[in-house]
Specification:
By secondary structure, the protein is an all-alpha fold. Helix content is 65%, strand content 3%. The protein has ten helices and two strands. A two-stranded antiparallel ribbon has the order 1-2. InterPro entries: GntR_C, TF_FadR/GntR_C, Tscrpt_reg_HTH_GntR, WH-like_DNA-bd_sf, WH_DNA-bd_sf.
Amino acid sequence: MMRHWAQEIPAHNVFLSPGLGLLLTLWSRVSKCRQYRREAIMDPTPIYEDADESGSLAQQLYRALETMIIEGQLGPGDRINEKQLADQRGTSRGPVREACRRLEEAGLVEFKVNRGFFVRVLDLSDILEIYDVRAALFSQAGRILARRITMAQIDELQQLQDQMEASIEAEDAEKFYLLNRQFHSRIMRFTGNRHLADIYENLDRELHIWRKRALILDGNVRASAAEHVQIIEEFRNGHPSRLARILRDHSLAGRNRLLRTMPDSIADTENIWDDD
């Protein structure tokens, strides 16, 4: 049974191991130096909601460019030809530039002075380093939440899982991906540790395009959803070490799914990822 007597314990660094505490401190400083222009998003939702006509066009361009990146039509390091895209869509360069700025904020492209927007290059070492930290964050979140997660929060995760199952049946990978991000972000937010959650959101933004690509291209939604069922069940049991392990394993399984979708020239994962 879950230890409800411990739910009032504040989620400060009392639950952090010294090594992870140092890791979080260092990563927090690194994250600030990246100077993202938008604050971390606690509840990932579509970027555009109340868009006017111009905003709707920028949204369409954003989605079109995102799809081109996911499907490999625009590869890492490729320049986005704003004029060509504007001509193809019969519009000015304003909405195209707005879409590119949104892509930059989402961590998918980068702006180079006097050169324009380029698809961001994220090499294998970047991905592995990010997933190392991500797995540690999930493990720590599990230890914290075993002591403090409420039944209402578990029910909220279950509702998200139910919606993900429905999106699988509807073959709606886009919706599954958004719900999947919300599921993970809720877990981090429920720890009550703002710094841990902020670091996670920065990491999630860096991996966004690769994780979405993995889910859409490799048909990984069912495997991911099955792991969510195990996570929710373990939340109900409330055992710290088991919960830490299952959340860590979920993150590492996601890493392996992602790596399997990468070009052979970047990663050969068959014999590498057998974690202890």
